[in-house]
Design a protein that fits this description.
The chain has 5 helices and 4 strands; from the N terminus they run H-H-E-H-E-H-E-H-E. It is an alpha+beta fold. Helix 4 links the parallel strand 2 and strand 3. Strands 1-4-2-3 form a 4-stranded mixed β-sheet, sandwiched between helices. 52% of the residues lie in helices and 13% in strands.
């Protein structure tokens, strides 16, 4: 009988220690949770006070202005780079239309005349479809543009591609006109 009572006391003592350990861990988790919430609020406030307008880094702007050429960091989407135009695509398409090929031939002149720049070709999509699908489609669009420019004689070493999928929309609406504006390849000159 004494052995059973001793075992029972040991079990109760072990359970009490375990319960106290769990209670201490819960307090630690609660404190950690409050710390995470506080940190996210602070970060959210500090991020929301920053200017959200995308600008070129100061060193890029300095490098561009030293060369005496006005280049907008938004690239051809800005409409401010004479001789460099954004190319549009059809819905769910990455093949180049006759109009797109004509525009790329005109862009080639600017690209060849400004050999001290690397051109980043950005592939973009409209807001329909999954993120993954649109990233892949944007990459196909950028590759199609790059391949065509290379076929016209532009060195592939001067061309880089990136896909933004549906992450950088020009038009935020849901009309067909808005979707048309977003399906594009943008050209961003980067100093070498």
């Amino acid at each position: 009988m004494y052995g059973v009572r001793f075992q029972m006391n040991k079990i109760v003592r072990d359970l009490t220690l375990s319960f106290n350990n769990i209670r201490m861990r819960c307090k630690m988790l609660k404190t950690l949770g409050l710390l995470i919430v506080s940190l996210s609020v602070v970060l959210n406030i500090s991020c929301s006070t920053k200017d959200t307008k995308e600008e070129a880094p100061a060193e890029d702007s300095a490098a561009i202005s030293e060369k005496g050429i006005e280049v907008d960091p938004l690239g051809s989407d800005s409409g401010n780079i004479n001789g460099l135009a954004t190319v549009q695509f059809g819905y769910d398409q990455f093949s180049l239309s006759a109009d797109a090929r004509r525009m790329l031939s005109e862009n080639m002149g600017w690209i060849k005349d400004h050999g001290d720049y690397t051109i980043q070709i950005e592939g973009h999509c409209d807001s329909r479809g999954s993120v993954e699908y649109n990233l892949a489609l944007g990459e196909k669009r950028a590759k199609a543009v790059k391949n065509y420019l290379v076929s016209l004689g532009v060195s592939s070493k001067r061309l880089t591609i990136i896909s933004y999928g549906k992450e950088k929309l020009l038009a935020m609406g849901d009309s067909e006109s808005d979707h048309d504006q977003n399906r594009r390849a943008n050209f961003v000159p980067l100093p070498r």
